[in-house]
UniProtKB/TrEMBL annotation:
This is EAL domain-containing protein. Residues 23-274 form the EAL domain. The chain holds residues 317 to 592 of 734 of the full protein.
Length: 276
């Protein structure tokens, strides 16, 4: 697998084959993951930048494969979209997170990731309604995190969905801002309550040679002017915390405060007051 042209070719080709094989395995197993109870939700705190008190938990799905261990959601969510089962998995995640949020000893918000494919499907608003009804979660405690890719679809339909969700009293956050084909026109009409600044802007922001800190300030300024909150994602070090706080983000999330933790641990930390 090392050295000249032919060896290299073989290397890449078997690598590709391995990749395809792995993918087929994941596809087969993912179809059964729900029935086999292999999926769960983890929770990561989002803190206020002035007090470091927890304002919300973001729910992050986990798949523990019996042989492979944890499979990254980046990987299996994409597979679920291709297989056409994202709607099922997404609905399960939505319900699970709403049901678990009502068990918390404090009325914090729960921020739930919604895939664009799921968001633009007919019946998504009904899914949200039914999750709220089944769990009795107050709508204002539910925040849906969506990415710019929802704007690729039918604009009128997307706008209608936004308005119906706002009507329900649910909050909307624009996730991974600045990484896709960001367009300021998205912010013009969409009723977002929050913008999440992608962690790629935090990485390296403490290095004076790059523009990340300036971009962060600009996004925060824009969000402020539009009356939206801002979350800086992926804060890992005290230096990064200092920097993003100086740039004015209203909320912070990252390993510095906590990694995503299982539901029982989140409850325990809240009860013990470890998380305020
Ligand atoms: P995301 O929504 O942008 O979530 C943030 C990701 O960054 C999470 O990865 C989180 O664990 C990680 N993270 C948080 N703080 C830090 C930090 O300080 N440093 C670093 N390096 N990483 C940090 P995770 O849980 O692996 O999720 C990856 C992506 O998978 C998510 O990105 C989201 O796009 C997707 N995803 C996760 N759960 C769900 C879900 O329930 N539904 C849908 N549709 N997508 C989900
Ligand atoms: Ca998210
Ligand atoms: Ca994000
Ligand atoms: Ca992401």
């Amino acid at each position: 697998a090392k050295g000249g042209g032919r060896g290299q070719y073989r290397f890449y080709s078997s690598d590709l084959e391995e990749g395809a094989k792995l993918r087929r395995l994941l596809e087969e197993d993912l179809r059964d993951a729900l029935d086999r109870d292999e999926l769960s939700m983890y929770y990561q705190p989002i803190v206020k930048s002035d007090t470091y008190n927890v304002a919300a938990f973001e729910s992050l799905i986990r798949w523990e494969h019996p042989e492979r261990g944890f499979v990254s959601p980046e990987e299996f969510i994409a597979v679920a979209e291709d297989l056409g089962i994202i709607n099922q998995i997404g609905e399960w995640a939505l319900r699970k997170a709403c049901m678990q949020a009502v068990e918390w000893p404090v009325d914090l918000r729960v921020a739930i990731n919604v895939s664009a494919t799921q968001f633009v499907q007919d019946g998504f608003v009904d899914q949200v309604k039914s999750a709220l009804q089944a769990s009795k979660l107050k709508p204002e405690r539910l925040e849906l995190e969506i990415t710019e890719s929802v704007f690729i679809g039918d604009a009128a339909q997307t706008q209608k969905t936004f308005l119906e969700l706002k009507e329900l009293g649910v909050r909307l956050a624009l996730d991974d801002f600045g990484t896709g084909y960001s367009s300021l026109s998205y912010l013009q009409h969409a009723p977002f309550d929050k913008i999440k600044i992608d962690q790629s802007f935090v990485r390296g922001a403490t290095d004076p040679d790059n523009n990340n800190a300036a971009i962060m300030s600009a996004i925060v300024g824009l969000a402020d002017a539009l009356g939206m909150e801002t979350v800086c994602e992926g804060v890992e070090t005290k230096d990064e915390l200092k920097l993003v706080t100086a740039r004015g983000a209203t909320h912070i999330q990252g390993y510095l405060f906590s990694r995503p933790i299982p539901h029982e641990e989140a409850i325990e930390s809240l009860s013990k007051g470890d998380l305020k």
